[in-house]
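Input:
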Amino acid sequence: MPTTRRQFLSLAAGVTAAGTLPIVTLRPLQATPAMLNGAIRNLVGEAPVRTGRVKLDIPPLVENGNTVPMTVSVASPMTADDHVKSIHVFNEKNPQPNIGNFYLGPSSGRPQVSTRIRLADTQKVVAIARLSDDTFWQVSAEIVVTLAACTEEMN
Amino acid sequence: MAALINVPAKARRGDVIEIRALTSHIMETGFRHTADGKLVPRDIITSFPCRYNGAEIFRADLFPAIAANPYLSFFTVAKESGKFEFEWIGDNGYSSTASASITVE
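Output:
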């Protein structure tokens, strides 16, 4: 039987619908980009997050995800009416999307924080700064991780 | 627990100084399993406040993504001579403190 146009269209629609179905894979030990966005929305609410002003210093390639040096700095005069209130760092694929929240104030002098973090996989790290006027600024970096952290077996 | 604090001993009034603090802690993520499949319970430091003559000047909320033996570096303006007090607060009632003094001229 020759395929009619109607049959072809319904078939094509079915394939398209299947193609857009969310692929549900259960990976409880890995945050997803959706969790990353959720964590960011928890922080900023409905406010827009602009790109810029924040600088994230982190090696683009790390051999050992167990200890990755990271420095976040923000372009801000740090005066009483124009300063950084807090810096928040998130990741995409660790078991949990949060890395750390750092609370500063005008007396911090320089809006810069350094620490060492764990990365479970090759992924994106996002740093968001909240300024005293409650605007949010972000920057992200892609990091390639050779040896993953977090979920390895204990010896 | 042992802590390593690095604060300049002396500073001029108004200088921006760097403070570095390192403490020894396993920072067990709570996501690891032993070889026989048991989950290793989480044991991390969750909060790190720093006070300068009693007033909080910096605080960090830490998550399992912070590496073992958490290291933090941050800045503050040297306002007056006095004492910096550091506290590490964590799971299972963990608490540890350290302090350092500064002379401001």
